[in-house]
Design a protein that fits this description.
The structure holds two protein chains of two kinds.
Chain A: E1 2-8, E2 11-20, H1 25-37, E3 42-53, H2 55-70, E4 74-78, H3 82-90, E5 112-115, E6 119-125, E7 130-136, H4 140-144, E8 153-155, E9 160-168, H5 172-175, E10 180-185, E11 188-191, E12 201-204, E13 212-224, E14 227-233, E15 240-241, H6 242-253, E16 257-268, E17 271-274, H7 294-297, E18 298-300, E19 309-318, E20 329-330, E21 338-347, H8 358-365, E22 373-377, E23 391-401
Parallel strand pairs in A: 2-3, 3-4
Antiparallel strand pairs in A: 1-2, 5-6, 6-14, 7-13, 8-13, 9-10, 9-13, 10-11, 11-12, 14-23, 15-23, 16-19, 16-23, 17-18, 17-22, 19-21, 20-21, 21-22
Helix pairs in contact in A: 1-2
Chain B: E1 2-11, E2 19-29, E3 34-39, H1 45-53, E4 60-65, E5 68-69, H2 75-78, E6 82-85, H3 99-106, H4 121-132, H5 151-163, E7 169-173, H6 181-198, E8 201-205, H7 209-214, E9 218-223, E10 226-232, H8 233-238, H9 241-256, H10 259-268
Parallel strand pairs in B: 3-8, 3-9, 6-7, 7-8
Antiparallel strand pairs in B: 1-2, 1-4, 4-5, 9-10
Helix pairs in contact in B: 5-6
Classes of the chains: A alpha+beta, B alpha/beta.
Chain lengths: 404, 270
Amino acid sequence: MEISRQSSGDLIILRLAGRLDANWCNHVESALSATVRDGEHRLHLDMSAVSYISSAGIRVLLACHKQLRAINGLFGVIRPSEAVRSVLELSGLQMLIAAETAAESSAEDNGKKLASASAAYELFALGAGGMKIETVGDPATLARGCGGAQPTTRRFDAAKVALGVGALGGSFSENAARCGELLAVAGVAAFQPADGSSRPDFMLSEGALVPEGQLVLGLSAQGTFTSLLRFEANDEDRRIGITELMQTALESSGANAAVVVAVTETAGLVGASLRQSPASEASASNDRFGFPQIRDWLSFTSERSFRDSTSLMVGVIAKPGSAFDALLRPLARGTDLLGHLHAAVFPYRPLRKGRIDLQPAVTSLFDGQSLQSLLHLISDPRGFNGAGESEFYRGAVWIAPIIT
Amino acid sequence: MLALSGIRKTFHPGTVNEVRALRGVDLSIEPGSFVIVLGMNGSGKSTLLNAVAGSFFVDEGRIELAGHDVTKWPEHKRARLIGRVFQNPFSGTAPTMSIAENFALASRRGQSRGLGWALSPNLMQPLRERIAALKMGLEDRLDNAIGSLSGGQRQALTLLMATWLKPELLLLDEHTAALDPKSADQVIQLSDEVIQRDMLTTLMVTHSMQQAVSLGDRIIMMHRGQVLHDIRGAEKKRLRPEDLLDRFDEVRRRELLDESAAAMLNELYI
């Protein structure tokens, strides 16, 4: 099986030559998914030189068709050979055969184009609004212990955005020993239990069910997002760093501080998560984060991890001087941008282009129990020894300026 | 069945080659338990098995096996209770002796061997049956020298020999690591059958996550001469290879978190 690729406008044409059978369908499947990963959502498959297609091959075509339809893309077979045409028609799958000329991508409402050296941006205004923010807990308690403080149980409904250290579930007495990195947005809450379990746990609003939990330390915001920033790294760099992305997001909002939520196709994440709950009373030490005992308290990725994943990021970014500076840290040396960002990691899935809604974009990530990890993002500034910063291929950032 | 308490062993103490191979291992294994020992290179897995087998005496701690305190027993005395299969197919058998002769020796392990006929009919009949059950076509080659067989065949025979007398404890030290994938599968399957059938208490060292997940009822994960994780019961049953890889990754991350990373995290983590 030979596969060649050419592009015409925003349409990619893959030309197959050979037999599309069980032996070759994985090869074709990886070529298709590699194309989608490159951000190409409009695909034509030239099958004029395909002499045979089996059900294994049909399944690959159907899967790609379904995936691209779900993200408003385009998939179709063009110039099918007689063998391919008859198999597709007899099996009732004519819809896989595309018209000879592809419809232009429908001109949806376009956002305001911004460009930088390393990425293309598109900004959509969502209306007036903003978020009020509340700080929870004292950061010093992380290293010292919480001394038996009893946080209240809060509801993470659709209007709330929260991040910090906490746990899900109704009773703090049961949760004290498992508090870890937590994030909540769009009626979904997830946290990484710091009790030795390797998988993060999560709750979705369903019917009358609203996720509940306790935040020991962190930031909680409520209100509406005012803009959506789409970004795509340019062809040369292929990826964009978190600092540049957050700087652009804050500048585009015109505010000094903002709540951000991002769904991104991710090149790699750098971050840390708690190994033990800071709220448990087990430790007598006052200096949990000293060396080497920090190894028992924090797990640090030490290099860019979760390559080619999709992630949900929740955070607060601000210029210095905000009322919640104590909960923010510099995003990089040489900038005055501060931030506190958490990310939940999922297996890769492509994200629909253009103007998209927050709620479905977030909740669809949680389909199929595929949440892999949840961490506090850190940009490691240590030159050659450092892990560097988190990087992304493309994605969507919802922005809410913080109002008082 | 096997109880280790406070086992420590340092090789070449006081020299530049000093290696603190075991740094306080406490482990208790019930009769009939099949325990997989995992760990990175140099974590002390093989040293642990050798300490139990008596290849050296431990510096500190106590080893109890089948009701005996064997801490001070020499290796050959412990061999009455222990069957072993090594990674190298050339260990564990006498290459110039025939298959039958090797089994004659194995069948008298720990007993006085005397001057009687070693290859008695009482041995030959069950031997032929057990070897035929391997389906390797070896039952007709009992007079061939073991050295003429392939690694997989030798490892299968070594396993049969090591378990011939139903030892109190079976030690398998990466016994399929030197084999081609197909032979490794055969030997692993045979090991599992023998262990299940005779309900042998077993310690098996492996590097294969798949083996660790699909075999045994308990996993011991070694790191730097200590038991880092002890996974058993329901937790062992739900385990997938990815979970084990995560745990290894976690160990590596822990090592990479050095003083400079600690200083950076103190500055930047909240």
